[in-house]
Design brief:
With about 100 residues, the chain is α/β, with parallel strands linked by helices. Helices cover about 20% and strands about 30% of the residues. The longest helix is centred in the middle third of the chain and has 8 residues, at about 30-35. It binds zinc ion. The site of zinc ion has 7 residues, from helix 1 and strand 2.
């Protein structure tokens, strides 16, 4: 069975969600949300997503550019997913932009 390719709105009752071609937002896993925000799954949610990136500055750091991403959370209303483990924490987020 193939993995879903699209994230649909919460509570979506379409045929594709029914047969797991798509997944509705309120049933999506953190891994699927990570795929969506990384552009590897399509976003059909029609919702604004809040992405919170927590950056750790090493001791003695003098610039935000020294920061390392320590946590990435995606929120949509009452729903939230910690996608850190799927998007990686080893690189400075700001220099990736
Ligand atoms: Zn659907």
């Amino acid at each position: 069975m193939n993995s879903p390719t699209v994230v649909d709105p919460p509570g979506c009752g379409c045929n594709e969600c029914g047969d797991s071609q798509y997944v509705q937002l309120d049933r999506a896993s953190a891994r699927q949300i990570a795929h969506m925000v990384a552009g590897r799954m399509r976003n059909h949610t029609a919702r604004e997503l809040q992405v919170t990136v927590t950056t750790a500055l090493p001791r003695g750091s003098e610039s935000l550019l020294d920061g390392r991403t320590s946590r990435i959370e995606v929120r949509c209303g009452e729903l939230s997913w910690d996608v850190t483990e799927y998007l990686g924490v080893s690189h400075a987020f700001f220099t990736q932009l």
